[in-house]
Design a protein that fits this description.
The chain is α/β, with parallel strands linked by helices and 632 residues long. It has 21 helices and 28 strands. The longest helix is centred in the middle third of the chain and has 20 residues.
Length: 632
């Protein structure tokens, strides 16, 4: 049966159930959803059981949207919304999503904008036709989020066409015959960097992550030239576990060379990976390097991204469904669970995980409906890789900062913009508020400010304690007055040349570029100064050399003497240590029948794989790049 035949049959069944006074104008697949367009959305809303009845009958996810003809022009609709929303609601922003017929209204007081029992929302809907959604405005404005929303509004028609193409491809049907599942290692196996895996069946090909090797001078790419990967338009979907460049950095490259399919990830990951990718292009330009792709390919990625929330399940191929679960690593990071066939096989890719509640996030999820196989990271999987708790890490940071500031020195903390920055900010704010360290300005340089703003856009991805602190107690530690943004070269030079003690958080976290380099070059020879590593330093990076206490390092063409105090606070890592990784496997429910270990130096992959098998009896493999494993 062709997709057209299937749609015709579906349309007949829908029209047989829907009352004749509800006008249906179109029925079409858009992505995994079956979308019904109607000129009478209100009548549909009054019969809420109707959609459930249809979904059960058709075994499809059904969405009802207003026909474009009943939607008010966006400019006029915005004027009417502004006139209807009470002033005391404190309206901040309005953005339309034409591809789904929704308008989001950001206000400081959502209850006032919604009205008693939703009366105001109903009035807005009747006036403009758009489905209104009221959310609490984030306390910090994010330029990245704003620009992405504006761009999606500009390409709404193209996006709708894209979703319809995806929908038709998804419903092409699965083949008969022998069933098998394979995973091919394309990057990030027995190494850290350029993470990429290919999940394939007789009917589908899914690429999981597509990162670059941030520790390599030429930023090595995964093995994307394999016959089973090419051509790129044969790939059904790309799934991104999280936004760090070693997992998402080369996704735009796929669009440069012919990929035109969907990218699946969480909402925050979409925004953060765009931020990091754009910054990567800026770094390439600053270093006179030829970038592997252009900003136009990032824009194409945005238009083709289908974002998901934790717990959402969606078809991504004729025989594969995807659900994303909490990973605890950075904002929006996900363990990606794939359900293959009609109960045939289930496999999860952990991406990077943290199996411990942190100041920002809850611990990685361990419970899945089914789980036959797991691909798990091993960054700190070696037998001696034990990290202190978050509490001990905070104590260690307190001692280092207190000693340095009291000796009139400067504290330099190289950080990744996402995750570690915000955790360190929360700890420093607490220590300074409680007067456990001397008062001193804390400067944020690089993307940290913008990354922090994105965190405030997605409070539902933070842990419950932090959400309560921000929204119920009105205390947002990320917005404390002690933090000062460094926005220009002149401001950076002013901070560097100021003789007074201070704390600087600056990117990049491994000292392989970014504004942190200027601070390091200027302060490295000061014995009273300290550099504090709070994140993983890959082998070969400048950060790893300094961490190993090299007394001289080369930065550009300049030899820099390192006389500053070198410290490491490993308890801030977004990766699980050896004990947490073993406990994660122990607490998995259900237990997988096979485990593959990746994302770690070779010795750590082999060590963790052997230990899992020895302790839990689960067959475990440390694959090499270019190897393929068949599961069925």
């Amino acid at each position: 049966m062709t997709v057209e035949d299937f749609l015709n049959r579906v349309e007949e069944e829908i029209r047989a159930v829907i009352p004749p006074d509800i006008r249906i104008t179109d029925i079409e697949f858009e992505g995994a959803e079956l979308v019904i367009y109607t000129k009478d959305p209100e009548k549909f809303a009054e019969q809420n059981e109707l959609v459930k009845q249809l979904a059960k009958k058709l075994q499809k996810r059904i969405v009802v949207r207003p026909d474009p003809d009943v939607l008010e022009n966006m400019e006029e609709a915005e004027e009417k919304i502004r006139a209807l929303i009470p002033e005391e609601a404190k309206l901040v922003d309005i953005y339309f999503e034409p591809d789904v017929g929704e308008v989001t209204i950001e206000v400081e007081k959502p209850g006032v904008a919604i009205g008693k029992k939703g009366t105001l929302l109903n009035e807005i809907r009747k006036e403009i036709g758009w489905a209104p959604k009221v959310i609490r405005a984030p306390p910090m404005a994010s330029r990245t989020v704003r620009d992405i929303r504006r761009y999606l509004r500009m390409v709404a028609d193209e996006r709708k066409d894209f979703l319809r193409r995806v929908g038709r491809r998804l419903h092409r049907g699965a083949s008969d015959g022998e069933k098998w599942i394979r995973v091919t290692a394309l990057g990030g196996y027995r190494e850290v960097g350029r993470s990429c895996s290919l999940l394939s069946t007789p009917d589908s090909k899914i690429l999981i992550d597509c990162g670059l090797d941030v520790s390599s001078p030429d930023n090595g790419s995964p093995y994307l030239n394999l016959p089973e990967v090419l051509p790129f338009d044969s790939i059904d979907g790309v799934v991104v576990t999280h936004a760090h460049l070693d997992h998402s950095g080369l996704v735009p490259l796929l669009f440069k060379y012919g990929y035109d399919g969907p990218v699946y990830t969480t909402y925050p990951t979409r925004d953060v990976m765009v931020l990091l990718q754009m910054d990567y292009l800026r770094v390439c330009a600053d270093e006179a390097k030829r970038p592997p792709y252009g900003s136009e390919h990032i824009r194409k990625e945005i238009a083709n991204t289908i974002p998901l929330n934790y717990g959402d399940t969606t078809d991504i191929a004729p025989d594969i469904r995807l659900t994303m679960h909490r990973a605890g690593h950075i904002l929006g990071s996900a363990i990606c669970h794939f359900h293959i066939g009609d109960g045939l096989f289930n496999i999860a890719f952990s991406g990077d995980i943290k199996y411990e509640k942190t100041w920002l996030f809850s611990a990685a999820a361990t419970h899945f409906p089914r789980l036959e196989a797991l691909v798990v990271e091993s960054t700190y999987g070696g037998k001696n890789d034990m990290q202190p708790s978050r509490k001990k890490a905070a104590e260690q940071l307190k001692d280092i900062v207190k000693k340095t500031l009291e000796s009139r020195g400067k504290v330099l903390i190289p950080v990744f913009a996402i995750g570690r920055s915000q955790e360190v900010m929360i700890v420093l704010e607490h220590l300074m508020r409680e007067k456990e360290i001397p008062e001193a300005p804390i400067y944020l340089d690089g993307m940290i400010w913008e990354a922090t703003a994105i965190h405030t856009v997605y409070p539902e991805y933070l842990n419950a304690d932090l959400r309560k602190k921000i929204f119920q107690e009105g205390d947002n530690p990320l917005m404390a007055d002690i933090f000062e943004r460094v926005e220009s070269y002149d401001k950076r030079r002013e901070v560097i040349d100021d003789p007074d003690p201070c704390i600087v958080l600056a990117t990049s976290g491994m000292l392989n570029g970014g504004p942190v380099m200027e601070y390091f070059k200027s302060w490295a020879d000061g014995e009273r100064n300290s550099i504090v590593f709070v994140g993983y330093q890959a082998e070969g990076t400048l950060g790893r050399k300094i961490q190993k206490r090299w007394k001289e390092v080369t930065v550009g063409n300049k030899v820099v003497k390192v006389e500053m105090n070198v410290e490491t606070c490993e308890g801030f890592s977004g990766h699980s240590d050896r004990k947490q990784l073993m406990n994660y496997v122990k607490n998995l429910s259900p237990k997988p029948r096979k485990i593959i270990v990746n994302h770690g130096e070779e010795s750590k992959c082999l060590d963790l794989a052997g230990s899992i098998y020895k302790k839990y009896g689960i067959p475990t493999l440390a694959m090499k790049n270019l190897e393929t494993v068949r599961f069925r």
